[in-house]
Design goal:
single chain; 157 residues; three-stranded antiparallel sheet; two-stranded antiparallel sheet; 5 helices; globular
Length: 157
């Protein structure tokens, strides 16, 4: 019960934000933004940047050998959550974190030579695997995230 996946927690928060908007419950959006910040601050690698894949709630080693990798989808889902958080709450901290995660993501995951994102970085933010598709990395998170960010930015004005 101690395993934390910051990416799934943050992804779930933008789903909650969409519900909060649909249900007209601003307090629910505020809570989702608060949880996004808590998870992001906990999961952010203070030494090398980026968001850890897995963490232990008590700071102990995890069983997952890939715990310290940085994955494309985690960062993309975080960008969505932060923009939706700003859209719904106007909390400036969302924009500050968005800029930080955006800079990390576009400078580390993007393949400049062959447009698409690498999926897996090591802890230092270096490309771990050059593959851009496989069993887990398909054509889902990148286009969905770009679309979600685009539409959210449009609605912010």
């Amino acid at each position: 019960g101690r395993l934390i996946n910051p990416g799934h927690a943050i992804e779930a928060m933008w789903f909650i934000m969409d519900l909060a908007k649909d249900l007209e419950r601003p307090q629910l959006a505020e809570k989702a933004v608060e949880i996004t910040f808590n998870m992001l601050e906990y999961g952010w690698d203070k030494k090398y940047g980026g968001i850890f894949y897995f963490m232990d709630r008590l700071g102990k080693p995890t069983q997952q050998l890939e715990w310290d990798q940085k994955l494309w989808w985690v960062h993309l889902e975080t960008l969505i959550s932060l923009l939706k958080g700003y859209q719904l709450t106007k909390n400036e901290k969302c924009l500050l974190w968005f800029e930080k995660v955006h800079e990390y993501s576009w400078s580390k995951f993007r393949d400049v030579e062959h447009p698409e994102w690498f999926g897996y970085l090591n802890r230092r933010g270096e490309v771990l695997l050059t593959l851009k598709g496989g069993k887990w990395k398909g054509c889902f998170h990148v286009p969905r995230a770009l679309y979600q960010c685009w539409k959210t930015l449009e609605s912010i004005g």
